[in-house]
Design brief:
This protein is mainly alpha-helical. The protein has a three-stranded parallel β-sheet. Strands 4-5 form a two-stranded parallel ribbon. Helix 8 links the parallel strand 4 and strand 5. Helix 3 packs across helix 12 and helix 4 runs parallel beside helix 13. The relative contact order is 0.14. The site of tryptophan has 12 residues, from strand 1, helix 7 and strand 4.
């Protein structure tokens, strides 16, 4: 029986947080044994907002090293840099010819970014979800692990797959989201109503995967809680709820077990333990990362082999699509 196909990606736009790790990469590591997984570092998506070239280069390798440090395995999965597999762009052009301006202009991420940056409203920001659909559809993807914020984009990918299949003939798999459990959505440590993000102005609102132990401990201690003073899990104590989620994911303990463990204890005890847990969980990743980021030859080998593998996988789908839309098949 053939395994299902998984596709996901992260933009190399800055350092990753434990939100990226718990909400995405940690989950992907577990998927590797059961699915045919494809994980990309989506540099093409990153340039939809202005990037400093040297930083983009640095961040791309950093994300790759972090993928590997966190446990993504190039023997099991196809790990590659998006711009190396130009098939994504070729499909994107074709799909953009079937994408409606109206639907793209209703994308909330686009509207958000457009309202914030009117001096750089570039066309790529607008067609971003079409490229994302190409990423997904090119691999015959069955499942896309994504956060809530990307669900609308996935919906577009599904629409485009169906539209193409209806207009021509059965070609694309219609992908399904792989929605993570609630606990996998990590919120800001300073405002539990918003998602943890490295672009937050307040550095205490997030923990970077590469933060050192002292920084992690300080940030956890400063995390916003409430004045109720009882460790319990509910929406009124949203800050605490978020911390319990982090605790639970990193220890594989259930929420009930954790709440029970801190019965009669204060937030200080809880936070002290959590700080150690987070620091201990990230330490091996950080150590492995430090080793990998120095080994440019190895990183180059991984992304080169990954791109070759990805190209091999996408070739057939792309030529099928090109044939169906009426392009003359290349003979060279
Ligand atoms: N847009 C996604 C994000 O910012 C990243 C991404 C690009 C992606 N292509 C993808 C995610 C394909 C899943 C599948 O999070």
């Amino acid at each position: 029986m053939s395994k299902g196909v998984v596709f996901s990606g992260v933009q190399p736009t800055g350092e990753l947080t434990i939100g990226n790790y718990i909400g995405a990469i940690k989950h992907w590591v577990d998927l590797q044994d059961d699915y045919d997984c494809n994980f990309s570092i989506v540099d093409l998506h990153a340039i939809t907002v202005p990037q400093i070239p040297a930083n983009l280069r640095k961040n791309t390798l950093e994300v790759l090293a972090l993928y590997l440090a966190a446990g993504l395995d190039p023997e099991k999965s196809t790990i590659f840099i998006q711009s190396h597999v130009t098939e994504h762009l070729e499909l994107s052009w074709i799909l953009s010819s079937m994408s409606y301006m109206g639907q793209l202009s209703r994308m909330t991420q686009y509207k958000d970014k457009a309202s914030k940056s009117d001096e750089n409203l570039n066309a790529a920001l607008f067609t971003y979800p079409v490229l994302m659909a190409s990423d997904i559809l090119l691999y015959g993807t069955n499942f896309v692990p994504v956060g809530d914020d990307q669900k609308q984009h996935l919906e577009l990918a599904r629409d485009l797959a169906e539209r193409f299949n209806n207009r021509y003939s059965q070609t694309f798999v219609v992908p399904e989201p792989l929605i993570q459990e609630e606990g996998a959505r990590i919120m800001s440590l300073q405002d539990p109503t918003v998602k943890m993000s490295k672009s937050d102005d307040n550095v205490n609102s997030y923990i970077l995967l590469l933060d050192d132990r002292a920084t992690i401990i300080r940030k956890i201690k400063r995390a916003v809680t409430d004045s109720i003073g009882v460790v319990s899990y509910n929406d009124e104590q949203a800050g605490l709820k978020n911390l319990i989620n982090i605790y639970s994911v990193l220890t594989n303990k259930t929420v009930d077990e954790i709440v029970k463990k801190y019965e009669g204890k204060g937030y200080g005890d809880f936070k002290g333990d959590l700080a150690e847990i987070v620091a201990d969980s990230l330490e091996p990743i950080r150590n492995k990362y430090e080793e990998l980021i120095k080994d440019k030859d190895y990183l180059e080998k991984v992304y080169s082999e990954g791109a070759e593998k990805a190209k091999r996988k996408t070739k057939k789908m792309l030529s099928k699509v090109q044939r169906k839309v009426g392009f003359i098949q290349k003979k060279y």
